[in-house]
Amino acid sequence: MNIVILAAGMGKRMRSRLPKVLQPLANKPMLEHVIEKARLLGDQNRLIVVVGHGAEAVKAYFKDDKDLTFALQAEQLGTGHALLQALPFCDKNEPTLVLLGDVPLICPETLRKLVEASGDAMGLLTVKLDNPTGYGRIVREAGKVCSIVEEKDATEEQRSIKEVNTGIMVLPTRYLDKWLSELGNQNAQGEYYLTDVIARAVKEGVTVNTALALTPEEVEGVNNKVQLANLERAFQKANALRLMNEGVTVVDPSRIDVRGELICGQDVTIDVGCIFSGRVVLGGGVRIGAYCVLKDVEIGAGTEVLPFCHFDGAEVGRDARLGPYSRLRPGTTLADNTHIGNFVEIKKSVVGLGSKVNHLSYIGDTDMGARVNIGAGTITCNYDGVNKFRTTIMDDAFIGSDTQLVAPVTVGKGATLGAGTTLTKNAPDGELTIARARQMTIKGWKRPVKKL
Ligand code: UD1
Ligand code: CA
């Protein structure tokens, strides 16, 4: 079939420069959610996206999606006019499923049900809402759909109808040329309403079958930031339910945000306020403390992350202990049993088996062996203002507190650096190296006294 996604509207009520369909839900444009759902209906379908307001931005965002055809609606004259612009790209012998770019949570299951219900006539997806404000109402006679009336054009009596138009429908494409080009715009909004094709179809004796949406959220349209936030919560709640059903302990399902893919092993616990984005993989028994932000990370089984950590682009082994307040930046690999403590930042570095960086340190561009201990306040000076250099710290080294390692530099196997060392040359294996001013005491020195 043809799947046409209407996405040309400006979304005035968003009060934003970003086109409405690019407004993000869980970090991804609403339109992308719709496209992904459409793809799940099978790859033999034609996907046509009607763009208009912000068309260049929308097309640029999806430039790598070769399965999409864009139809331009230069002027946004209404949903019926929008569909007419897509028609030249549709196969006349196949039905057309219309989706809306601002209805992001639609379930493929529901769409399949609708397509089935429509047979080779028409299908309309409706939903019953306690508060139908803002939606087109489904007008029935003797139980049969006879028209849709928009809220702004409805009579007092019609407004009390609780069954509303989701905007999602299946249409017989061969009639559309005629039906759409004959639409009028004599209505409250002066627009060519797609919804008017329903009355037209009924007049021509085409049956309008309906299917009911499973939940109100899946067909909720987003016209403003309040609705966007509501749907974000609904989406996140559904994520949390899925995780819990898979056995994850989500301490509070209303305080977790998954803005990508979160894959969990058995007996994972996630405390409140955590945000996951990109692809995050947590091994069995991993515990994530409160208020952690994790993006594109993989964490091995048994590792514990204490509260307030920020990880991006890192790989962590098993049974490690990280945080509180640790920051891992892209290119970081921590081996099993490592300990990373508070106010430690690690970038583009490898930390070997069982090594510890427990307090207030910056480790960048470093290759660290196993069982290394990094004292508090250690800094790898990896940058001379122009170039970056690497630091190598070999197995069993012990770095005293408040040490600067001026890269490129190597600390040998089992070497010890005295506290306060500024290391500018390699430190040999197994020896104590120390570089700091010698301590002295000035005997009989007197403090200055205030002159009168
Ligand atoms: C529309 C329906 C209404 C339904 C509601 C469900 C019409 C006339 N009304 O109302 O019955 O209850 O959706 O959410 O169809 N668009 C274009 N070009 C245009 C106008 C809109 O592409 O000229 C796109 C928008 O980008 C949006 C979608 O169509 O994705 C719906 O448009 P919107 O203006 O939000 O329609 P509603 O007033 O919500
Ligand atoms: Ca809408």
Description:
- It is built from eight helices and 35 strands.
- The longest helix has 21 residues, at 225-245.
- It folds into two domains: 2-219, Spore Coat Polysaccharide Biosynthesis Protein SpsA, Chain A, CATH 3.90.550; 225-433, 3 Solenoid (UDP N-Acetylglucosamine Acyltransferase, domain 1), CATH 2.160.10.10.
- By secondary structure, it is of the alpha/beta class.
- It is elongated and about 110 Å long.
- The structure holds uridine-diphosphate-N-acetylglucosamine and calcium ion.
- Residues 102, 221, 223 line the site of calcium ion (CA).
Features:
452 residues; alpha/beta; Spore Coat Polysaccharide Biosynthesis Protein SpsA, Chain A; UDP N-Acetylglucosamine Acyltransferase, domain 1; 2 domains; 21-stranded parallel beta sheet; seven-stranded mixed beta sheet; elongated; binds uridine-diphosphate-N-acetylglucosamine; binds calcium ion
Give me a quick take on this structure.
With 452 residues, the protein is an alpha/beta fold.
Assign the CATH architecture of the largest domain: Alpha-Beta Complex
Uncertain stretches: none
Count of helices?
A: 8
Please state the structural category: alpha/beta
